[in-house]
Amino acid sequence: MLFKIKNLEYKKSNKTILNNLNFNIEEGKHLLVLGSSGSGKTSLLNLMSGLLKPTNGEIFFKDHEYSSLSEEKIDRIRANNFGFIFQKLHLIGHLNVKQNIDLINNKNDSKKVENLIHGLGLTQKSEQMVSELSVGEAQRVAIARGLANSPCVIFADEPTSSLDDYNTQKVMELILEQTKQTKSTLIVSTHDKRIKKYFSKITEMSL
Amino acid sequence: MSDLRFVLYSLKYRFLNSFLSIMLTAFGVSIALLISQFGNHIQNRINLDGQGIDIVVGAKGSPLQLILSSVYHIDIPTGNIAYSKAKKIMNNPQIEESIPLALGDNWRGFRIVGTTTNYIRHYDMSLSTGRYWDQNFEVVVGSSVNLDIGDEFMGVHGLLEDGSSHEEHKYDVVGILKPSGTVLDRLILTSLNSVLDIHGLHKVDNSFEKNHEHQHDHEHHKEEHHDVHEHDHDKEKHKNEDENHHKHSKNDKETNKTNELGSSEITALLIKTKSPIANINLPRSINRESSLQAANPALEINRLISLFGIGSKSFAILSLILILIASLNIFSGLASNLENRMGDLAVLRAVGFSKKRIFKIIVLEGILVVLIGIILGILIGFLLFSILTHNIFTLQTTNASLIFNLDFILIILFVFFAGLIAAIFPAYRGSKISIANQLSRTI
């Protein structure tokens, strides 16, 4: 089992965000966390990736329960196992395309970075500063960065919420193609129901 | 990507801010180094030039002026004193050594000093080439004076370059002193009589110069007859006195020829006493003498230092302020930049960069700025020091040179640690950010 979520509860400023959540995710399977804004889907992603600590309950990743691990061990789990694609991309402004991708490549696998750049059609842009890229190009860089450390889990937060149908399809196909190649698990949080069709396992969240 | 490369890209990206921090650190370091180096130079000069001189006797006036003009040769003398009166003091049993100085002329700004070879011996100096003066108008020059053996020159009246020349007499260079870092490096030394002669004053007995222990010349002899009880002479001295008396008689004819000359005068008398108690008693008794004043160099220089604030404490405080400004700039650069980079740091933390690594990256950025600033500051300091010492006559002639002393190392260490401390707070704050909050704030 890749993830096991047991009785998960999360409160923020005395407000219950998540309450008694239970589910499992097997390796190679994808999960869509669907819900409206403020339903707690981003909090769930943050809890699963160890960026937040639950108020109650347990989160197991490959049989490691987060609360029993030190912060440094959780950092290491993230560095070696997780990839992130943020809604607003969060590319590092002072680095170019290649450097942004290479930053996450903690295995120093330059071939992997080159392949990602080539695979995502960024070869011509690899030396360009990210601030000079178009939205579509920047999004591809963000996807490449999320895959640079060959993660077994990719967390994507609202990857398509600001895109039109055509680009939504393109981005989802791109991400799923990459996950297929790397045999990784994709966990997406979104309010965008257009992408439901790409997932077999969906957790719907409500306020 | 290595953390160093990440930091270098970051510094390059915010070039203007990094450049300003580096330059401010560099200027802080260079100014602190210059202040420290010149402070040390002045202190060394004060110590070296004033070594072994306990009392200076000269004409009434400012005691500080007397010290500056006679010991350090950087001011105009207070006036002249009668050689006969100086002789009385020279024979005081509390005095271990006394050196008469006669000033009044210069050559291209270098002072011509009529004195005895005891002046050279006092500073443990020796010749690099040539010999000491035997005759009047022969000179021995300090290492900074641009004259060679065999050169002839005319003295200019006064202590400034634009005075009138003494065209009737030419000085002849017979010796050059080794560099010593003392005031002698920038002086032209000659016999007392050369200076007296050129100014139309009675000469004094040369035997004084050749043997300090037997300093009984004509003037003194005359004085003895008038005031025998003032001096405590042993038998040997009486013998010498008699010899000098005979010598004087032989020279009577010659002396009569020079009756029109003024009585011998000198500018100052440098005195080394036999005991510290004499340093207190002797000036008191001399100052009672209406036309003479005795000043204590250590006392006057301390007064000068406290007046102008050139003491080591003032230097240290000024340097400290400069370094603190540089450190504050590093701090403000990193702290203000941190606000703009919170999102970046949150991303780094999210993808697995540990708190320690984030801390290290921000500190490394501060350290790089401060290290580049220090290196640049040392280079700028060297360059400014070199420019100043080549263009300022006093520094050139006093052989001001860079010294890698403890102060130098302390300044570097202080700047480094100040920069490090300035970087630690932003680094700590950066490492403690709430990743989820930062990402949700900017997502």
Quick structural overview:
The complex is a heterodimer of chains A (about 210) and B (about 450). By secondary structure, chain A is of the alpha/beta class.
Key attributes of the depicted protein:
heterodimer; A: 207 residues; alpha/beta; five-stranded parallel β-sheet; four-stranded antiparallel β-sheet; B: 443 residues; alpha+beta; eleven-stranded mixed β-sheet; two-stranded antiparallel ribbon; 17 helices; 13 strands; elongated
- Total of helices of chain B: 17
**Annotation field: number of helices of chain A:** 6
Uncertain segments of chain A are: none
Share of β-strand residues of chain A:
25-35%
Task: Indicate the structural class of chain B.
Answer: alpha+beta
Low-confidence stretches of chain B: 210-258
Mean residue pLDDT of chain B: 79
Give structural notes.
The complex is a heterodimer of chains A (207) and B (443). Chain A is α/β, with parallel strands linked by helices. Helices cover 32% and strands 26% of the residues of chain A. Chain A contains six helices and nine strands. In chain A, the strands form two sheets. In chain A, strands 6-7-8-3-9 form a five-stranded parallel beta sheet. In chain A, strand 1 and strand 2 form a beta hairpin. The radius of gyration of chain A is 17 Å and the shape is globular. In chain A, 44% of the residues are buried. Chain B is an alpha+beta fold. Helix content of chain B is 56%, strand content 14%. In chain B, helix 13 (312-350) crosses helix 17 (435-442) and helix 14 runs antiparallel to helix 16 (406-431). The relative contact order of chain B is 0.17. Classes of the chains: A alpha/beta (207), B alpha+beta (443). Chain A binds chain B through residues 42-43, 46, 49, 51-52, 71-72, 75-80, 82-84, 86-88, 90, 92-95, 99, 102-106, 149, 157-158, and chain B through 1, 6, 9-10, 12-14, 343-344, 346-356, 435-436, 439-440, 442-443.
